[in-house]
Amino acid sequence: MGISTVAVHSEVDAKAQHVLVADEAILLGGDEPAESYLNQEKIIEAALSTGAQAVHPGYGFLAENGAFAKLCDQKGIKFIGPSGEVLEAAGDKIGARKMAHAAGVPVIPGNMDVGGDVSRLIQKAEEVGYPVMVKAVAGGGGKGMRLVGRREDLVEALERAQSEAQSAFGDGSLYIEKCIADPRHVEVQILADEHDNVLHLWERECSIQRRHQKIIEEAPSPAVDVFLRKRLTEAAVAVARAVGYRGAGTVEFLLESNGSFYFMEVNARLQVEHPVTELIVGLDLVEQQLRIAAGEKIAMRQQDVRLGGHAIECRIYAEDPEADFMPSPGRIRALHVPAGPGVRFDSGVESGNEVPVHYDPILGKLVVWGPDRERAARRMARALSEMAILGVKTPIGFLLEIVESEPFKNGETSTGFLQKHFNNWRPKPERVQAALLGWVVAELEGDAEPQPATTGIQAAEVYDPWASLGRWRMGEE
Amino acid sequence: MKKARVQAAGQEYELEVVSARDGQLHVRIDGEEIEVAYSVCAPGVVKVGGQLIRVARLEGHRQVATGGCHVVVEKLRRSASGQRVIPPEVRPPMPAVVVKVLVAVGDAVTRGQPLVVVSAMKMETTLVAPKDGTVSEIRAKEGDKVNPSDVLVHIEEKSE
User: Fold this and answer.
1) Residue A93: what are its φ and ψ, rounded to 5°?
2) Predicted confidence (pLDDT) per residue in A351-373, tens digit
């Protein structure tokens, strides 16, 4: 589109991928989000000093912050997303619930107004019945969210969620929702322009989650037929119209096995999993965001939006699937990325990069397209089996065994999928055996240290592991 | 290397190299005889039994990737009696900030009991007691920035 870019970054991100690819980069401040990525004044200052006409807020931090959108507006900078008022209405999860309810869309039983007082939350939990979900009013991405099965665990969960929400969003307010048993997470992509056009780009299913965070997403959903698709997308458009949505956004639903669905929330931003939608509709969603922000009309009608084939995304985080997905920071020693038709890897790292401890440790998103779900799943399995990331732990092998599994192939995905089928997962023994043989050869042949393509690792830095005692991870069996 | 005891994917294995010459490897894994062809393709890349395997040497272990499977292989040391040694110290698994200390010195704790809540990468993680015992020392307080080398809680083992 020929648009020049300015990246903003914290100190630790000075050599991050988004900084390297941008035309210009501005240092915001220290690594604490409050000093950099949540520092509204600094970001505005960066935009003004570089002459940026618009700000793309990305996925996290200020992406759904109404005050920031308003501040951009005051300073004459276009915020790429809905207006501050809409962000506040949609981003406030309670307000959105009320609004969806008013628009005739079913919502999950729970608090319909903000109750800062803990006793009101406890009372609501009693009212809707356990298990309940504790959620952050300003929440997203699983931060500040807890599943509570028993009354006696509620107070501790409220405390943890409150402090997590406070540090992640600067707002610790919580609400209670009834927990829908083992639902699917299905969401509808919306595009809305400033000329009253609201389109949907079909649904995505994002049921496979760990720590309430999606790790595998696909489009379309294997659980949605044409009739349900019609109801879901109509409900999503109704919600988007009710809030006066502009730009790209997502309306999230929980889908029960009996086909009933409940509005969950509006994600008033581009989502991490947007590539699966891009691949089935053949559109670049960021381009659409930029065009809408520039005041253009969406250049197509609803009936022209195609649904072609099937796309699957696997999120590759620096985390340990064998230890409760604990983050695994460190230096990436080797990175081997699969390629081929219908295979895309959207990533922010290179070999030699340090994965910092400060932020969400996502390394990249492996996305595949196939003419149907079965072929997309096969392609994903092939791509994952060719992928290697060494230096930090990743769930690549775990994701591979999921997409190869019968329940996944049968489309039996639900938010309880991992708990049900992959609890205490370990790689298959034959794969471990192959790895052991590789270890033996490396041991015999001496130092087979891969050299990162980028400089940074010096021989002197390489620590001799055999001189020291191997350390056990604790609290693990 | 002739024999090694390693831990990989949560299990222990006894490895023994019987022979390795002319590109032929003969090993025993927990007594099972395996004979395969092998070659070194590039630094960190080997081929064993037709499978491409990537290996990186990290601190205290190697990480091996093959066919999408990623495994950390760690050589084990044992105590004189052959027992696995459970360290008495609780350390954070990564650089983190202490959110809350849940125990006090002198508290009796059981294995798996939450001791300290730390926050890293915006996630809160609860560190638990590695074994039954008594809290003999606490070297962490709310707000401390801590590293994997720091002992946060020391557990004195129950006398049998």
Assistant:
1) -60, -30
2) 888 887 778 889 999 999 999 99
Q: What is the value of pTM for the model shown?
A: 0.83
Parse chain B into domains and list their residue ranges.
3-75, 89-157
Can you tell me the distance from the alpha carbon of A367 to that of A289, in angstroms, rounded to the nearest whole number? 21
Task: Read off the pLDDT band of A466 (50, 70, 90).
Answer: very low
CA-closest candidate to residue A223, choices A211, A235, A208: A208
Write the DSSP symbol of residue A107.
B
Tell me which residue in A326, A440, A472 faces B17 most closely, judged by beta carbons. A440
Identified catalytic residue from A269, A315, A344, A373: A269
Evaluate whether ipTM surpasses 0.90. no
The CATH class that applies to domain A6-88 reads alpha beta
CA dihedral of residues A348, A353, A355, A356 (deg, nearest 10)? -110
For tokens 């004195």, name the residue: B156
Tokens of B38: 């092998």
A74, exposed or middle or buried, with CB in 10 Å at 0-12, 13-18, 19+?
Answer: exposed
Q: What is the spatial distance between Cα A253 and Cα A187, in angstroms, rounded to a whole number? A: 6
| Nearest CA distance, B146 vs chain A (angstrom) | 12
Q: Give catalytic status of residue A379 as yes or no.
A: no
pLDDT by residue (tens digit) across B60-80? 789 999 999 999 999 887 655
> Residues B9-48: pLDDT tens digits?
989 999 999 999 999 999 999 999 999 999 999 989 999 9
Which of A167, A423, A439, A466 to mutate: most B Cβ within 10 Å? A439
Q: Kindly indicate whether the domain formed by A109-178 is annotated with CATH number 3.30.1490.20.
A: yes
